[in-house]
What does this fold into?
Amino acid sequence: MRFRPKNVLIGLALAGSGIAISALAGANLLAIILALFAGAAAALLIVQPDQPEEEIAAADGAVPAPPSIEAGPILDAIEDPLLLVRERRVVLANAAARAVLGEHIGGADVRLAIRHPAAAERLADLGEEGGKGRIELLGLGGNERRWEMAVTRLPDRSRLVRLTDRSQMHAAEQMRTDFIANASHELRTPLATVLGFLETLLDDPDAPEGARNRFLKIMLDEATRMRQIVNDLISLSRIEAERYTLPDEPVDLIPMLREVEDTLENVVRAQMSEVRVEQLAGTAMVPGDRAQLHQLFSNLVANALKYGREGHPVTIRLEEAGAMLKVSVVDEGEGIAPEHLPRLTERFYRVDAGRSRSVGGTGLGLAIVKHIIGRHRGRLDIKSMLGKGTEVQVFLPRWRDAES
Ligand code: ADP
It folds into this structure.
């Protein structure tokens, strides 16, 4: 299809509104399609007045005639699948539509092109409404994919069908729902224990002192666990809220790693292990958020101690790695099976939930680590061998003098 711009046309198609239709009636088809295409926030198209080109040139002096525009490449550049349908025939399909629905949909009945019962029902309607509006299609082009189909009637009575991929938005929505369900579940379990023991104590005010103390100790442990979960949830949401603010404080990692070692002294002693800090880097300055970096390394060293083997050392190694500094936290514990590695940074994901809870884990430590590293524009690598141990590597951009 060749498109020669003839009309003055400023089409402002606000997302989802379709307000441009009447303003554009009578304009060129491609112009209408582009103006109706309400993808991001707005589409703006300006072409020449409806006047012979020679007259324009004469009136304006030496203004050359506008070049003709090839429609195909423009429509193909649109990332959403787009179909132009006359009666029930597909007369135009852009590259994205062909990729999702098949190369041979040009000329086909639209109900065969978009093989989905809800879409077929809508598009079968040739009446005044012509299946106008938006509906959701599940499973088109893959089981898990979700599309929104929008049908718009054009002035020449053909219809423009646009599919917008909503799969990612739906997956994000699902993650949010799962997160709330998981967080509620994690809090409900210790809360039920606390309430159960409180009721027992109230029902039996004369319980022997030994039993009373045991119950009180359990309640204290469970309440402490709830506090830890709430603190971790607050940390996560704070880090997420700051994710677009680049940390810019100069932080020296050498004293910081020593501080982390000191903070965890009690755990180290309980585990009868030791933390060795190996500094191979000359300088270890990074642009960072001091409190968050402290939390990052505390979480990793605490994990190495929790899941390491009693009496075996935990090593923190600091090295230069080009433009980055690399901090490795190495333990000699049981290690992690490969199938778990990709999921470890998901909120509340644990390899062994019972073990994690028994060592005071919340299942949020590595999610916090991932978000802090993301905010610092760094990288996280977890390597592990069953029976041998785990090495967690953190790469952080080095401080450059230009930053001072
Ligand atoms: P948790 O609070 O349960 O420790 P994390 O988010 O810190 O939660 O870690 C997620 C899971 O990853 C843990 O429950 C544990 O199964 C596993 N994990 C983390 N670090 C190690 C490690 N150094 N060795 C073995 N398993 C680990």
About this structure: Residues 78-165 form a domain with the Beta-Lactamase fold (CATH 3.30.450.20). The chain has four domains: 1-72, 78-165, 180-241, 245-404.
